[in-house]
């Protein structure tokens, strides 16, 4: 499944880390985010390949340039839940709907599994972003938000 939003953002499922993944690493590290380093480390050691039931890793491109990445995995607090994980949009592509398109793509993938979906919003921009997609605050270990179905 490929999603083309009409604004040039194309989102697709990936089963390998993309070529030029180092762009994510350099830019995320420069901003103080360790999510891309963690993604790479978990991918190479095999501990997280987005292969279990309900999981997906998605890549967004704009005119064939990698713009963002994100996915959903089994939740590590409660394995009956899913968790939005490893989201990162490169600075040059922010405020263009990239993060939203990735999130909507993986949420659509998760629908048939009918599981709670949690996340940890890392930083003030994320705290504002996730509620626009229907996530609400929750008091839970290593979790800031949960998806509110039907919102």
TrEMBL record:
It comes from the Bacteria. Coiled coil: none annotated. CDD domains: NAT_SF. Residues 9-151 form the N-acetyltransferase domain. Keywords: Plasmid, Transferase. GO terms for molecular function: acyltransferase activity, transferring groups other than amino-acyl groups. InterPro entries: Acyl_CoA_acyltransferase, GNAT_dom. This is GCN5-related N-acetyltransferase. It comes from Rhizobium leguminosarum. The lineage of its organism: Bacteria, Pseudomonadati, Pseudomonadota, Alphaproteobacteria, Hyphomicrobiales.
């Amino acid at each position: 499944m490929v999603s083309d939003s009409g604004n040039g953002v194309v989102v697709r499922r990936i089963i390998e880390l993309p070529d030029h993944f180092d762009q994510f690493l350099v830019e995320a590290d420069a901003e103080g985010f360790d999510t891309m380093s963690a993604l790479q480390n978990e991918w190479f050691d095999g501990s997280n390949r987005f292969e279990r039931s309900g999981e997906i890793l998605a890549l967004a491109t704009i005119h064939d340039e990698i713009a963002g990445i994100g996915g959903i995995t089994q939740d590590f607090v409660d394995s009956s839940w899913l968790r939005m994980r490893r989201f990162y949009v490169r600075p040059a592509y922010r405020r263009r709907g990239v993060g939203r398109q990735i999130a909507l793509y993986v949420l659509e993938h998760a629908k048939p599994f009918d599981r709670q979906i949690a996340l940890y919003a890392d930083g003030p921009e994320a705290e504002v972003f996730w509620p626009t997609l229907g996530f609400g605050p929750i008091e839970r270990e290593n979790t800031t938000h949960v998806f509110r179905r039907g919102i």
